[in-house]
Amino acid sequence: MLGISLLARTAITADVMALTLYVVLGLDLSYAAAGGVAAALTAGLALGGPLLGRMIDRRGVRVVLLATAAVQVVFWMSVPVLPYGVLLGAAFAAGLLMVPAQSVTRQAIAAMTTAGQRRAAFALESVQGELSYIVGPSVVILCAAQTSPDVVAWGVGAAIAAGGAGIAALDPPVRAEGEADAAAAGRPPRRQWLGAAMIAVLTMAVGTTTLLSGVDLAIVATLTEAGQVSWAAGVVAVFGVASVAGGLIYGALPRPLPTWLLLGLLGLVTIPAGLASGWPSLCVAVVGAGLLTAPTLSTVADTVSRLAPAGARGEATGLQSSAQSAGFALGSPVVGVAVDLSTPAGGFAAAGLAGVAAALTGWLLSRRPPSPPSDPARAEAPDLEPQGQGPR
């Protein structure tokens, strides 16, 4: 499942780059116009997560995956013939109905693993995500240099659809054996699971991706000021490799760490990266943040999966995807303003402080006493932070 979903996730991480290259090279329009299409796609992704999650809860994984894969085939095959105005609306619709590879993978991990295995499995899922971000955009840029942007768009669409169809063929379970009866009993009301604990972890999901998006921009700003912008891809690659290593190390640890602590540390080690003045020192400076990135993302996913009841886990993981998309959209503008008002070092500071603020907010929310559950079957609610061993 992880192998097949990697195909879909790699293509999904490359979709914005593919559309950007098509608008700039294929339609001969500005980068601002390309940003409009990317924004439309991102807005669709943010809104579509909970929608598709509810559909998975009600209709099952296979139906949703096949339907969204078909939508992606139609969209990406049509990209080369769509005028810009129509492309904006179509990109929003494609984002709204994007193949939910990430959400399904997380639900399946929660269903297919025991409590003692789950943290390591989510660490692998985060490593998979880092690999997709390293490989996807790079492959699209390389292919665009060798062929036309139309062919690149078709290739991205084919990979997304193939990955979605492959996961649908596997039809992984999204309910553990003991959860099947609970899911069949109906969807629990949102007020039962969307409480302070869930809001806390969703807030930290936003903070994590806000930080990561901002760091990417701060890296480019720092190297542009130093006249070394061509090394930006190398620094980002070092960051990604460090994150992969961090995810593998964290998955092997005997005990987990709280989400707020991981995110707070991630924010704190990000701030000093602004002291770097060139690509060699910047490569060293981002290693600390990289080592904490995958562990933080994996702990967020683990916590969401445990806080959500079986009958609403699809919607909950969709909300997590939406929160992370919102963070990615928020990070670049926030850090961009900080860079414009100060220096590239201010960009790293803004990104790090955003992470620290989200961690502090999550910690404060998690300390609120939970309200008494109305459902006796849910009387023992899971803790906010992941557990190393023992039953759910």
Automatic annotation (TrEMBL):
Keyword Membrane annotated: yes
Domain of life: Bacteria
One Pfam family in the UniProt entry: MFS_1
Keywords assigned: Membrane, Transmembrane, Transmembrane helix
Transmembrane regions: 7-25, 31-53, 60-78, 84-101, 193-219, 231-253, 260-279, 345-365
InterPro entries: MFS (IPR011701), MFS_trans_sf (IPR036259)
Full protein name: MFS transporter
Species, as recorded: Dactylosporangium maewongense
Taxonomic lineage of the native organism: Bacteria, Bacillati, Actinomycetota, Actinomycetes, Micromonosporales
